[in-house]
Specification:
2 copies of one chain form a homodimer.
Chain A: E1 6-10, H1 15-26, E2 33-37, E3 60-63, E4 68-69, H2 72-82, H3 93-118, H4 127-153, H5 158-173, H6 184-194, H7 197-200
Parallel strand pairs in A: 1-2
Antiparallel strand pairs in A: 1-3, 3-4
Helix pairs in contact in A: 1-2, 1-5, 3-4, 3-5, 4-6
């Protein structure tokens, strides 16, 4: 395949970056991507990132022809196209996969907000938001528990990547939630996900 | 075209719902969609929506065969497929369109957070977040100002819908920002967007 030089604005702990890197490993493209450590924070735009992405978000992929791609789904679809198409099933299964992707990515969006709120000084927290974030997280886990059999029966795709990375992030930042206790089926699925070489290759390591 | 019965969890003021409805009008499918008013709030999951979407987010599209689709991008791609394909250009232009879509949708995500923070009691606000949201919004507007000529030169697609709906939301919830003053080129583009029948048909009206 004809692969352009690619620079990825990257961070070892961003779950959205991890989605892209898991996909890149699954597609055999990880070695083609030059990663550049880029720190983004809710409370401070990264001035060096803004020319490539004015939202100051990662992942952001810059190609050597000057083209810049984001968000994670756009980047993964681009990489998938370079590799001949593996992670997006044909229609109509595509729409089920994209909805699973939206469920996993929506869980990540929710967990980022949850963590930002939880880590504030208590006098600035909004209690009903914390309750709401916890209730939605439970609702997603309960749904995933029911969907675990069909997730296991479906060839690995973009939906599995998003859901798997979201559950790994739950382990990483919400370990005290002990989500596996009440969700054995999706926990078993996640154990299989975590054993994939693409997932092991992208584990966050402490500095 | 063979169109299934579709129920859309909908709200008149959700900019993400509006993206879907603008697309439906552009595709000639608006009359086929039964809209159901569904209220979602950051601080309270909608219990009636959770069975269809455990994230408690709108838009969520339920088909008569029991299949449920979200988020807005997934729904629009599904509708576009039903209508024969109009709003997603062929590759490689597809990836530019998806990145513009991510820019517009990312601006919306940012503005929702901005509004939630701004509308809190001042003692619970985080000042650096408000500054950061404002700086990112300016960075996006400055980018759009530079991209206005290419936006005008490109056939109307999913990217235009997201950017247009985001700027309309800026008018609706951040009127005091007076974004047009420093951004005449993208303001002119937005005037053309706002004149489209699909956009006029989806204007929020007060109850």
């Amino acid at each position: 395949m004809n692969v352009p030089a690619m620079k990825l604005h990257w961070s070892p702990r961003s779950p959205f970056v991890r989605k892209v890197m898991v996909a890149a490993h699954e597609l055999g493209l990880a070695e083609q991507i030059r990663t550049v450590r880029t720190v983004v924070r809710m409370g401070k735009p990264n001035e060096e990132l803004l020319p490539d992405n004015p939202l100051s978000k990662i992942p952001t992929l810059a190609l050597d022809n000057g083209q810049v791609l984001f968000d994670s789904l756009t980047i993964i679809e681009y990489l998938d196209d370079l590799a001949g198409g593996k992670l997006f099933p044909p229609k109509p299964a595509r729409f089920e996969a994209l909805t699973r992707h939206a469920l996993g990515t929506g869980l990540l969006d929710l967990l980022i907000l949850f963590r930002n709120e939880r880590d504030k000084p208590v006098e600035r927290q909004t209690a009903e938001w914390l309750d709401s974030f916890a209730a939605k997280t439970r609702a997603v886990l309960d749904r995933l528990e029911r969907e675990a059999p069909s997730l296991s029966a479906t060839p690995f795709d973009i939906g599995h990547i998003a859901i798997g990375c979201a559950l790994s992030y739950l382990d990483f930042r919400f370990a005290d939630m002990h989500w596996r206790a009440d969700h054995p089926a999706i926990a078993a699925w996640h154990a299989g996900f975590s054993a994939r070489p693409s997932v092991r290759a992208t584990e966050a390591v402490d500095d």
